[in-house]
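Contributing new records

If you add data, match the layout below exactly. Sequence lines come first and carry their own label; structure lines follow with theirs. Keep one chain per record. Anything else will be rejected by the validation script.
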Amino acid sequence: MNDMNDMKRLILILNCGSSSVKFNLYRMPEGASLVSGNVEKIGSKDAGLSTRTGDGGSIRKKAEIRNHAEAIRWVLDVLCESSKSPIDAVEEIDAVGHRVVHGGEAFTEATLIDESVLVKIKECVRFAPLHNPANFEGIQASFWLLPFSRQVAVFDTAFHQTMEEDAFLYALPMKWYEQKGIRRYGFHGTSHRYLAKKTAELLQKPVESLKLVTCHLGNGASIAAVDGGRSVDTSMGFTPLEGLMMGTRCGDIDPAILLHVMGEDGWTAEQMDTILNRQSGFYGVTGGDHDLRTVEEKAEAGSRRHGLALSMFTRRIKKYIGAYAAVMNGLDALVFSAGIGENSPTVRRMVCSDLSFLGVELEEAKNEKNARTIHRGRVPVLVLPTDEERAIAEETLDVLRRAETLKTVGVG
């Protein structure tokens, strides 16, 4: 009989948004993506499903899809009905890994879902009202449609639950934390954990020996200080609004600005939320452009505002890197990832300039080619593609292995 850790598993990853379901079917442990895709416009008569298979095939369909349960049923039907489908029946799926945005303080790692876990996920809706409800609906639908598969929740916030109180608390009345749960939670945790693991593998060193700064730079962006494989600080806070300047989010600001503008102009909290989350960042500074590629092009063409936005963005990243190196008392590697981090030599160059005191120096030819390693200084600087769906699959597999180990030794 094969060791349980060597067994092949089919793991379906579901990422349920307010009107969408992203999915990816993996064969584990090798991490082969067999088929992936997306259902969009859930709740309309014009919902669309698109898939991509590992051999380059694709399927596109349109139909009326009223809710997430119907969307997931559609996904399962497509997984089995195609002549190129990797499975004959959904019963072959061993587990479903669900991306859950917010796990509050209740979850420090991925976990098997039971009734008590569902209750806690629902309680976290107050922290993530735009995301957790859809995550919850997707989990419920999966229990109905895939009753024979293990259900696993993987939380964006879990990785950062290792932060100490002096890192996650705000200097606000303590009762706000004790009674309302107001604290820094951090996000993109699945990505930061994955990047730390892959960095250790690339450097051929145990992650427990490394002090890392991981930069997840996309339209949403965050940075984490990872000391010995544990998150000790991160830039996003109670919500994903805090931290870096982003595509349309403001990042760190003086909170008194909000009181001042709301008092002068009579704006409501809802109006201010729209400004901060949807009309700030690159969008606000440039006057309407939020895509980094456009910002770089117009900055190079001479636009002062676009050049300013780029300088503001990279300066803030540099400040966080310096601060996190100080928090950890050292830096063993700097990692860039996500859409901007992986594809913008300009951003990496501007961020790493004047960091030679930390041992960070770029090899420009490698940087221009988006090479995996781009440093010539003492500290490795890496460009690593993040793969959050694969990371969720890996964490789901780890949960299955732990559960089976406990069952084998007679625990639980």
